[in-house]
Design goal:
Length: 329
């Protein structure tokens, strides 16, 4: 039986015992603290605070996101894994929304826990092995699908899936396999976005551009993110959209879709290479696709008509590779 004490062990000892500022009440009791002492220190205005029943934060301030994650894992018990937006942040995705609210956790089917507003607990019979990192996190493909199945904003789902594929972190096939293996509730929207990605779409702007092109009766289908080579097989460029019949390229032109100034410079060099090869290039800011769709379509249709009047350069398009790890403009 643990001994009772009313004094408090050194804070550093408590942090070292659990590895953070969030500890279980039973751990404090094992260290010799009496439950009355713990309750007193967690009183309003006291030096500690309760995060959930049986869970204490060893300071009296708003819990950080890391406090919530660690606390949720302690509360949910062994084998629990962080998934959803928190997992995406820990995996290093940059375009996913920052997590807020309860931390999404996966636990074994037989485990019964309440979230108490700290965590959202999902029981599963497909509990994956933890991914690498300091905290137990679901593999990226599971975290992506767990996040997007609960979303209703198409552009946010596009952004998450596009970044995952663009950076070569997972392929469309891997994401589709995870989507099919899991619960089908909420799967319609990510399924549609994965279809876009398989068609070569690599950004939210490109997805909107694809939808705009589908409204035109004058423009033929395009190839997205195809590699353009000359008659000797030499690589020329990889434009966003390629009108193969007339050797015309459409570039969705925005700094937002480049990782760095160097990448933007590479886009300018690519555009120069296309012009030198005889390709007609139309550059459009993403905002215009939404703000001025009729004008954008008109520009594309007129340029396409001009391109059809000239001799077509001897250029060839190689279909895009869905697992490419490079960002495109």
């Amino acid at each position: 039986m643990p001994r009772r004490r009313t004094d408090v062990p050194d804070l550093d000892d408590l942090v070292a015992y659990r590895g953070g500022l969030v500890v279980l009440v039973r751990d404090l009791v094992e260290l010799g603290l009496h439950r009355d002492t713990i309750a007193y220190r967690c009183r309003p205005g006291g030096p500690w605070r309760r995060l959930a029943p049986g869970l204490v934060l060893l300071r009296n301030g708003p819990p950080t996101r890391d406090d919530r994650r660690r606390g949720g894992l302690l509360h949910a018990g062994p084998e629990s894994l962080i998934t959803g937006l928190d997992a995406l942040e820990l995996h290093g995705l940059e375009r996913a929304p920052r997590p807020s609210g309860p931390v999404h956790l996966l636990v074994p089917t037989e485990r019964r826990r309440s979230g108490y507003g700290l965590v959202m607990i999902e029981r599963t019979d497909r509990l994956p092995a933890r991914g690498p990192g300091r905290l137990p996190v679901a593999p990226l493909e599971r975290a992506v699908i767990d996040a997007v199945r609960r979303m209703r904003e198409r552009d946010v789902v596009r952004s998450i899936i596009a970044e995952t594929v663009q950076r070569g972190l997972r392929s469309p096939a891997q994401l589709a396999a995870e989507l099919e293996a899991g619960a089908q509730r909420g799967s319609r929207l990510p399924r549609e976005v994965l279809c876009e990605v398989r068609a070569g779409i690599r950004s939210v702007a490109e997805a909107k551009a694809r939808a705009l092109l589908q409204q035109s009766r004058a423009l033929p289908p395009v190839v997205w993110n195809a590699e353009i080579v000359d008659e000797h097989g030499r690589f020329i460029a990889k434009p966003d959209a390629w009108f193969d019949g007339v050797a015309m390229a459409w570039e969705i032109d925005s700094h937002e879709f480049h990782l760095s100034p160097a990448d933007h410079a590479a886009t300018l060099a690519r555009r120069s290479a296309m012009t030198a090869a005889g390709i007609l290039v139309v550059a459009t800011a993403p905002s215009r696709i939404t703000r001025e769709p009729t004008l954008v379509l008109g520009e594309l249709e007129r340029t396409h008509a001009q391109a059809a009047m000239r001799p077509r350069p001897r250029l060839y398009a190689l279909p895009s590779v869905p697992t490419s790890g490079a960002f495109v403009g």
